């Protein structure tokens, strides 16, 4: 199986890797000419190939944003689809440069796995979905005692599920698969009564089922799932580039810089926008990061600002139609807050 | 002494570089040094790289709380148990599927293998088609065939198929009544053991009598009567302590009874039917390997075809069959790791989850390798003992 291959390759790679201090990730990426980005094996709205084979979604767009910041060209990115189980080994062993795969930021992953999370590109929470046609009368997760629950292995979801049923003194029967497609197929075939994952994921998965209208997402949110990209620990420069790409997306939205108006915004006299777009005389905020001074222009030209990215992939411009909610900017009552570029 | 000196004298005159003994010693030492230094280099590199990448290492994580649930738990396990216990659960599940698979594969394999040599055209052709189909399809596809093709299209729990004896079949698995043993049921167990001992004794005496007098005794039917009759008598005497827990419909699933999950069922069927095709060929080769003269001699002595097969052909065929059979058993055990594709929590699946929850890939993969190695070595060891007992006793 593929994940075992990656596990063993990863373990072997750790064995055969040259032990001399390696060059910084930025230099390596520039040298090979593209960014290798780890994404999911197909989660609508986050990272999924469309009918032409192009990767679409917030996570895929974040990869493009980083590629745009580094190369000025958002097409210089190659995607590696990874299962939940493969993702950390792939990053640790250097197979990918950036992990942008709806991954929950936890203390253990940040400290013991050799990863560094760069921010929260999507604030999510875990929920349940059931087939309302087959199970009429179930309208709360607390009625799920005795149910068979489909879940993907090796996720925080799997752990939250165990905690939730234990806390509420309910029984359940876990049906665990390694790959998202396997979980989807099993749920669609009726192997389980309920499906649990992040709520955003449930809305995306519902669209892929054979009769989406029969399925409802239950109202309970049982956990905090801050999803964000991660890089290898110990390369501060590369972590800064990924982190500030994310902040640049937020600051662009806050400043009203969009994919459509970014060129004319370059002539703005607002010092805040000048600093953001690198048009401030003698400003070298991009160069300090190891990038060009017009890095934010490149990012916004490629993928738009955070708000555009959200609406296009999961919001009103997508079949998912998820409201901004807590993912709105702090100025609009949400949690997304970008530290200033100055 | 003198003649040896003369014989060896010629090469020793040359340089010691040309001495074959010194040469072979030199190369063997070189290979050992290279082997150990490369192992040392890999281990050293792993440790250094893990430290450089700030990845926690060591086996301390085995004592922490696992936090995830497992669907099939042969021993008590909750999300509060340790990672170590989770791995043990996975290992036990692997052992269960391997043992059940080996038993079923052996039975099916022997039947098909003997069937391929049958005088009956239809039986022979059916067995040939079976072997050619199952031997040439990858086991993973066979697993998917059973899981998605056969079991997933069964009706949902509320429309379960009712089977005789209060059992049910639906897409969530196969539900059987479970025996509940009441007070005094130990008597039935004792009676069963006693019956087996008596059957063995009868068989032993019957063999002795046949050797001494040539008279035969219906051992088989006596044993059947003993093994069924004695426990049944004990059951009546102890006041019928056995009741059955029948599966019942509840909100989501059937509850109660004995539940065989579709993951286990499809894995068991796929692995054993796949391996049975190979075992059938091994059995056929073994029987074919017994010289035809043996069968003819036995027939000339007046034995019928059943006893010829049982007393003359199979004991000799077993000597040919057992060594390759061991490899098939090992293959089946290792193929059981394909369980991960359909979510049966075997060792690979459980260790994979542990690996991912802790992020300790090197340790996780190492534990998996060691566990499969030990399982395979134990299987080989047992089969070697069997093989030694079957070996031809030279007289």
Task: Calculate the mean pLDDT score of chain A and round it.
Answer: 90
**Structural class given helices, strands, pairing of chain A?**
alpha/beta
Instruction: Give the tally of β-strands of chain A.
Output: 14
Main sheet specs of chain B: 4 strands, antiparallel
Strand content of chain B: 5-15%
The chain-level mean pLDDT of chain B equals 86
CATH level 4 superfamily of one domain in chain B: MetI-like
Lateral strand order in the biggest sheet of chain A: 10-9-11-8-12
- Count the strands of chain B? 8
Low-confidence stretches of chain B: none
Computed CA radius of gyration of chain A, to the nearest angstrom? 21 Å
Summed up:
The complex is a heterodimer of chains A (about 350) and B (about 400). Chain A has about 350 residues and is an alpha/beta fold.
Please give a structural write-up.
Chain A is built from 14 helices and 14 strands. Chain A has 342 residues and is α/β, with parallel strands linked by helices. Chain A starts with a helix and ends in a 29-residue tail after the last helix. Chain A has helices at residues 2-16, 25-32, 58-71, 87-92, 107-111, 156-167, 180-189, 199-208, 236-255, 262-265, 271-277, 285-289, 295-303, 306-313, and strands spanning 35-39, 48-49, 55-56, 77-81, 98-99, 115-117, 122-124, 126-131, 147-152, 172-177, 194-198, 215-217, 225-227, 230-232. Chain B has 395 residues and is of the alpha+beta class. Chain B contains twelve helices and eight strands. In chain B, strands 1-2-3-8 form a four-stranded antiparallel sheet. A two-stranded antiparallel ribbon of chain B has the order 4-5. A two-stranded antiparallel sheet of chain B has the order 6-7. Chain B is globular, with a radius of gyration of 29 Å. Chain B starts with a helix and ends in a 5-residue tail after the last helix. The model of chain B has no long low-confidence stretch (mean pLDDT 86).
């Amino acid at each position: 199986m593929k994940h075992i291959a990656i596990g063993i390759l990863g373990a072997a790679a750790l064995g055969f890797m040259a032990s001399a201090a390696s060059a910084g990730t930025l230099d390596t990426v520039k040298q090979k000419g593209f960014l290798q980005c780890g994404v999911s094996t197909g989660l609508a709205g986050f990272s999924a190939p469309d009918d032409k084979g192009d990767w679409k979604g917030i996570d895929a767009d974040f990869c493009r944003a980083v590629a745009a910041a580094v190369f000025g060209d958002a097409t210089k990115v190659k995607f590696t689809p990874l299962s939940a189980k493969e993702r950390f080994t792939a990053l640790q062993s250097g197979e990918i440069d950036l992990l942008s795969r709806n991954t929950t930021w936890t203390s253990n992953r940040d400290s013991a796995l050799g990863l560094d999370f760069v921010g929260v590109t999507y604030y999510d929470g875990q929920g349940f979905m059931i087939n309302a046609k087959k199970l009429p009368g179930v309208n709360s997760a607390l009625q799920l005692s005795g149910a068979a629950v489909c879940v993907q292995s090796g996720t925080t979801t799997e752990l939250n599920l165990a905690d939730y049923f234990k806390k509420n003194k309910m029984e359940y029967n876990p049906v665990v698969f390694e790959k998202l497609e396997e979980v989807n197929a099993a749920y669609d075939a009726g192997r389980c009564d309920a499906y649990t994952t992040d709520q955003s994921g449930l809305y995306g998965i519902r669209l892929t089922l054979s009769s989406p209208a029969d399925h409802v997402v239950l109202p309970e949110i049982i956990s905090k799932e801050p999803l964000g990209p991660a890089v290898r620990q110990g390369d501060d420069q590369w972590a800064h580039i990924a982190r500030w790409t994310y902040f640049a997306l937020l600051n662009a939205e806050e400043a009203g810089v969009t994919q459509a108006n970014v060129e004319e915004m370059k002539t703005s006299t607002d010092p805040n926008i000048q600093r953001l777009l690198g048009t401030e005389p003698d400003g070298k905020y991009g160069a300090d990061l190891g990038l060009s001074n017009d890095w934010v222009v490149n990012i916004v030209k490629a993928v738009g600002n955070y708000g555009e990215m959200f609406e296009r992939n999961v919001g009103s411009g997508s079949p998912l139609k998820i409201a901004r909610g807590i993912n709105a900017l702090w100025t609009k009552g949400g949690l997304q807050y970008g530290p200033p570029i100055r | 002494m003198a003649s040896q000196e003369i014989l060896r004298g010629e090469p020793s005159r040359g340089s010691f570089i040309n001495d074959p003994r010194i040469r072979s010693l030199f190369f063997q030492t070189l290979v050992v040094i290279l082997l150990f230094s490369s192992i040392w280099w890999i281990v050293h590199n792993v440790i250094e790289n893990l430290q450089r990448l700030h990845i926690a290492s060591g086996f301390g994580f085995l004592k922490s709380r696992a936090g995830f649930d497992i669907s099939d738990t042969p021993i008590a396990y909750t999300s509060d148990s340790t990672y170590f216990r989770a791995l043990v659960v996975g290992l036990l599940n692997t052992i269960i599927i391997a043992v059940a698979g080996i038993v079923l594969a052996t039975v099916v394999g022997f039947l098909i293998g003997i069937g391929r040599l049958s005088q009956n055209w239809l039986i022979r052709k059916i067995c040939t088609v079976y072997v050619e189909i199952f031997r040439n399809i990858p086991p993973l596809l066979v697993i998917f065939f059973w899981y998605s093709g056969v079991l997933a299209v069964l009706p949902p729990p509320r429309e379960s198929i009712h089977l005789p004896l209060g059992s049910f079949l639906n897409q969530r698995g196969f539900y059987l009544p479970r025996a509940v043993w009441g007070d005094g049921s130990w008597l039935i167990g004792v009676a069963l053991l006693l019956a087996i001992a008596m059957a063995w004794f009868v068989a032993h005496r019957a063999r002795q009598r046949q050797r001494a007098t040539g008279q035969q005794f219906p051992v088989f039917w006596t044993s059947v009567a003993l093994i069924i009759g004695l426990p049944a008598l004990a059951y009546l005497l102890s006041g019928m302590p056995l009741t059955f827990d029948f599966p019942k419909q509840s909100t989501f699933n059937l509850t109660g009874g004995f539940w065989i999950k579709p993951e286990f069922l499809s894995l068991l069927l796929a692995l054993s039917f796949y391996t049975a095709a190979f075992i059938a060929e091994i059995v056929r080769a073994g029987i074919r390997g017994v010289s035809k003269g043996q069968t003819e001699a036995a027939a000339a002595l007046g034995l019928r075809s059943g006893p010829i097969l049982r007393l003359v052909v199979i004991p000799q065929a077993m000597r040919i069959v057992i060594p390759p059979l061991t490899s098939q058993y090992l293959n089946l055990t290792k193929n059981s790791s394909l369980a991960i594709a359909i979510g049966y929590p075997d060792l690979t699946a459980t260790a994979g989850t542990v690996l991912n929850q802790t992020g300790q890939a090197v340790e996780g993969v190492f534990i998996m390798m060691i566990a499969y190695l030990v399982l395979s070595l134990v299987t080989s060891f047992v089969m070697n003992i069997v093989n030694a007992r079957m070996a031809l006793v030279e007289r």
